[in-house]
């Protein structure tokens, strides 16, 4: 079953407007989540806000947002003041620029969302915008308010719908030159390159989502199931098994030997039973 839309508004391109819905393209609902429990009572621990100096409880009606201007000095804002900022993009995504589809660097891509028409009447306008972008091989650049923050977004036609990517701002992106500069700038050894290429060929398979399954989550679920049998639903969390020791630095072996051994050994299954 498709997840319910968490945002509804309008997609606009000049005078063309259509109602749309937006749903996160990813989910963490299957991820194992833990609560903090009082070891003595077995009940959940509640988080509360305390004054940093007096340690007195601060009720919700007395809490406001503050921006630190200097040490322990803040300018404060009510929620209504913050919500009034950038109102034009609260319920509308107005595409005002386009860029070649392959020109937006991957590092600017943040979170993906599925965008779909919100009613039958608007489907034609939605389809026209989608198909025109696909025909010109461009993506739309716009803005939208999500979680009280105006975000730059990229709209990309895909199949019958549109993928919306929130984009990181320029000041959030670190350039790679400072990290990659000076890493073995010479050409690779042809013999090593040939062996690596052969190894890649032997292990190349079609993409499958199971390639990125999370074995830690699977082990946690097994651990939880085992604990429920022993202690019931109110049982305490078992201490995690000590992690296996990391390989020591002196265990490094000759690269050529490692590659040759890798090629001699047929690709098998990992401990989870997956290829």
What's this, in brief?
The protein is of the alpha+beta class and 275 residues long. The chain is built from 6 helices and 10 strands, in the order E-E-E-E-H-E-E-E-H-E-E-E-H-H-H-H.
Give the amount of beta strand, in percent: 25-35%
- Our measurement of the CA-to-CA distance between the termini, rounded to an integer number of angstroms, reads 29 Å
The run of helices and strands is EEEEHEEEHEEEHHHH
> What's the CATH architecture of the domain at 7-26 and 84-167?
Beta Barrel
Detail the poorly predicted runs. Answer: 246-252
In the CATH hierarchy, the third-tier topology of the domain at 7-26 and 84-167 is known as: Ku70, Chain: A, Domain 2
Structural class by secondary-structure content: alpha+beta
Question: How does this model look, in words?
Answer:
This protein is α+β, with helices and mostly antiparallel strands and 275 residues long. Among the domains are: 7-26 and 84-167, Beta Barrel (Ku70, Chain: A, Domain 2); 188-204 and 257-266. It is 23% helix and 25% strand. The protein is built from 6 helices and 10 strands, in the order E-E-E-E-H-E-E-E-H-E-E-E-H-H-H-H. The strands form 2 sheets. It has an 8-stranded mixed sheet. A two-stranded antiparallel ribbon has the order 3-4. The radius of gyration is 26 Å and the shape is extended. It starts with 6 loop residues before the first strand and ends in an 11-residue tail after the last helix.
């Amino acid at each position: 079953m498709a997840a319910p839309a968490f945002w509804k508004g309008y997609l606009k391109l000049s005078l063309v407007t259509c109602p749309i819905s937006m749903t996160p393209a990813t989910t963490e609902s299957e991820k194992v989540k833990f609560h903090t429990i009082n070891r003595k009572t077995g009940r959940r621990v509640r988080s509360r806000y305390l004054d940093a100096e007096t340690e007195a409880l601060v009720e919700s009606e007395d809490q406001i947002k503050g921006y630190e201007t200097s040490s322990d000095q803040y300018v404060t804002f009510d929620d209504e003041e913050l919500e009034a900022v950038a109102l034009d993009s609260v319920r509308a995504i107005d595409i005002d620029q386009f860029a070649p589809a392959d020109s937006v660097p991957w590092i600017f891509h943040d979170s993906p969302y599925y965008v779909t028409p919100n009613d039958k009447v608007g489907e034609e306008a939605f389809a026209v915008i989608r198909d025109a972008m696909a025909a010109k091989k461009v993506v739309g650049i716009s803005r939208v308010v999500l979680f009280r923050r105006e975000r730059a977004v990229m709209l990309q036609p895909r199949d019958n719908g549109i993928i919306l990517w929130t984009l990181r701002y320029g000041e959030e992106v670190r350039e790679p030159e400072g990290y990659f500069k000076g890493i073995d700038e010479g050409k690779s050894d042809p013999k090593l390159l040939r062996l690596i290429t052969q190894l890649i060929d032997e292990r190349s398979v079609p993409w499958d989502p199971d390639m990125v399954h999370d074995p830690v989550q699977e082990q946690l679920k097994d651990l939880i199931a085992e604990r429920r049998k022993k202690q019931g639903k109110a049982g305490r969390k078992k201490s995690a098994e000590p992690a296996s020791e990391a390989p020591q630095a002196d265990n490094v072996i000759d690269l050529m030997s490692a590659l040759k051994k890798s090629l001699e050994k047929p690709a098998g299954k990992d401990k989870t039973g997956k290829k």
